[in-house]
Design goal:
Elements lengths: L1 E2 L2 E7 L9 H14 L6 E8 L1 H12 L7 E5 L31 E9 H9 L13 H16 L7 H17 L1
Parallel strand pairs: 2-3, 3-5
Antiparallel strand pairs: 1-2, 4-5
């Protein structure tokens, strides 16, 4: 689907019940891309799957055993994004679904999310990346989509200052939806 200047492909490879409509997933991606001043028009693929597939991807790409909630596979170098620099003017509003733009589209990256893990984390009160937030599975999935998209755009949380900045932007984006 198209949201503003971005195409967001949502692929479901698991039989899990989806706690958030696909259009809301696409909007969460668009909000994060807008906040990161991602190149536009651009494209992102979101794969909604289960713990088994995330465990395999985690092992293959990160060298870690076991499942995780979200993995991001960026296609662009972090310096492509305008993080910390003034925003471009004349950007399209990501709130509105519209026809695809006619210029070439940049593939920004792919995100894989375990819907199974998102639901479990929310229900057990282990959500919000702090392992102590109890909220709806829809809110947890929205956070994971936002988090994964920010990773595509060069955001990271390896250092405490980076983590604080990324978490603050996530909260701002989640509060806006």
């Amino acid at each position: 689907m198209y949201v503003g200047p971005w195409r967001v492909d949502v692929v479901r490879s698991a039989a899990e019940v989806l706690p958030l409509p696909q259009v809301e997933i696409a909007r969460a991606v668009a909000h994060a891309l807008e906040a990161a001043d991602a190149p536009s028009p651009g494209a992102v693929t979101v794969v909604l799957t289960d713990d088994e597939e995330l465990a395999a991807l985690n092992r293959e790409h990160m060298g870690h055993d076991g499942p995780t909630d979200v993995l991001s596979f960026p296609m662009l170098e972090p310096d492509v994004f305008r993080r910390g620099r003034p925003k471009a003017r004349g950007r399209r509003d990501p709130q509105h679904l519209n026809a695809p733009p006619s210029s070439p589209r940049t593939h920004i990256g792919d995100i894989a999310i375990s819907v199974e893990r998102a639901i479990e984390q929310a229900v057990e009160g282990r959500g919000g990346h702090t392992n102590d937030v109890r909220w709806s599975p829809a809110d947890e999935l929205r956070l994971l989509v936002t988090h994964g998209t920010l990773h595509l755009c060069g955001w990271d949380h390896a250092e405490p200052a980076e983590e604080a900045e990324m978490r603050a932007l996530e909260r701002k984006l989640l509060d806006a939806t």
